[in-house]
Structures are given as C-alpha cells and as structure tokens.
Amino acid sequence: MSGNSPRRTLNLQGVLKYSVEHTTNPEADAQLSTDLDEEKSQFLEGALNSLTVGASNDFKTALEILDSPATSIEEKKESLDHLRSHIDDLDLANALAKMGGTKTLIRYVTAPEKELQALSINIVAEMAQNNIFCQDIFTKEKFLPALARNLSEAKSNENIVRCSIYAISSIIRSFPPGMKEFKRINGVKALLPCLKSSNADVYIKSAFLIASLSSLDKSLRDAFVNSDAFSILIENLKPIDDFDVKQETTLHALSTLSTKSNLKLSAEKRKHLELTLAQIISNNKQNEDCEDIVNYAKEILDNLN
C-alpha cells in the first residue's frame, strides 16, 4: 500500500449515490441519493451493517488464533493476512482497534518470528494512515517506542526496519501527540543509524522521513542537524547526470535541514558541497525528469549563502 493512498470508508451516502447512478428506472436517474425512499435507505444501511458485523466476527476469530499458544505459525500468518486484507477500510480499522486488536498487535510488532512481525507492523502502518482515531490509540499504547527499537536492526533485518519506518511515519504524520511522543522517545537518535544502511530502500525511507519531519517542526530539524544528519547525508551525495531517486531524496532532506543557520560544516566540507551541488545543477538543468533535483540543489546553495 502506498504511504499516501486515500482511505476507504463504508459510507452510506456513497452507496446510495451509486445505486441511483446505476438504476434502470428513468425516474430514479433524475433523483439525488438523498431522495431515495426510506425503505431502500434502511435496506442499504442494514446491508452495510451486516458487512461490518460480519468482518468484526472474522476479526474476533483471527485475534483468538493470534492470542492462542496452541495455534501454528502458519495459522497466525493466515490470521494476520486476513486482518490486513480488511483494515485499509477506515471503519473496519477502527472496529479492530475498538475490540482490543491493538493489544494483540503490539506483541507481534516485536515478535521473534520475522514474517509475523513484518505483517503486524504493516497492519499498524495501514491502520494509522490518515486515521486520527488509530494514531491516538497507537500513541497511547506505546507503539512508537517498540517501533523505534526495531530500527536498531538496520544491519540485520532490513525488511523490519523498512516496515517500522513506514509505521512510525503513519502514526506521527499530521498528529501532534504522535510527534510529541516521537520527540520524547528520542526518535531522532533511533532513526539516524538508518541513514548509514547499505540498503537503498532503508536509506531512502529514512531520508524522506527526516525531510518531512524537518519541514514540519523546526525543533526536530535542529535535532537532526545537531545529531550530524546533515554531514551523513552529504556523504551520500553524488554528482549525478540523470535522475536518481536516492539522490533526489538526499537533496530533499539536505534542503530542509539547510534552513538551519549553524550546520556544523568545516570550510572544506562546505566548499566540496557547493562544488557538488553546482555540478548537479549543471549536469541536469536541461533534464525535465530532474527538475526537483535541480531545484533542491539550488535551494541548498541559497541557504548556504
């Protein structure tokens, strides 16, 4: 699932509108969904409630399997797969949280079985995505400290780290209490080692999150700079002559951090950075695919000066 994908929701008005648009009755074609007769509205509402109740019963069964020490790893995996196939729906994600599913998930977020752990972390990320209700529950139930500890596996289990960065981002994005908790647990310190990962995906996800957080919160921007994130990012910067997603993300992060006045750069490092940025601009200014790359490089130069 994409990190920016819109959430679906069981919306009665949407179903009613759909039924009007697809009816074969000419008179109904001219009516708005809100004009449907009471009997049809009740029927559709009942159908939606049945879907929700049915999914909730399935959730209860899945949670019982996950909570039982007698069930197999494969049965637990199937249960997590079932949960994940439904929780992209906002109402069902909230239903799972309300029935206590998060208390089961937090155990699996740090489970020794890596496949179950990765599935659980992705479920957390997808439940929290653009969902204040779930963001609040995950924050209060201390998911962020558990996920931050997973980042220490940057060298041993890259998939767990990728999933954990995704979940952290989903929990704290546009949610001030989550951002506050991220600061409290020193999430900056936990995230920084991911910039040193040899895995491109881990590096890109961590650099992008640093860029996003730094653009939203000056105190986090300063914390990243003071933790040497700017210097680590510079070490990954190359004088490319074509589009490169890693380099674009590096430049994006550098551009947000470079708005801080004290970047802790030596004269030698500053000069080397300026030369690299000038080369990137010169190499790519005619390439439409590199428009953002060039703009980020220009922003950094402007901020340095």
Automatic annotation (TrEMBL):
The family database entries (InterPro entries) matched by this protein are listed as:
ARM-like, ARM-type_fold, Hsp70_NEF-Inhibitors, Nucleotide_exch_fac_Fes1
Instruction: Give all residue intervals belonging to the Nucleotide exchange factor Fes1 domain.
Output: 12-96
> Which domain of life does this protein belong to?
Eukaryota
Q: Does the keyword Transferase apply?
A: no
Q: Does the keyword Repeat apply?
A: yes
A Pfam short name? Fes1
One MF term in the entry's GO annotations: adenyl-nucleotide exchange factor activity
Single GO cellular component term: endoplasmic reticulum
Keywords of the record, alphabetical order, are: Repeat
- State the protein's name: Hsp70 nucleotide exchange factor fes1
Natural source organism: Drosophila madeirensis (Fruit fly)
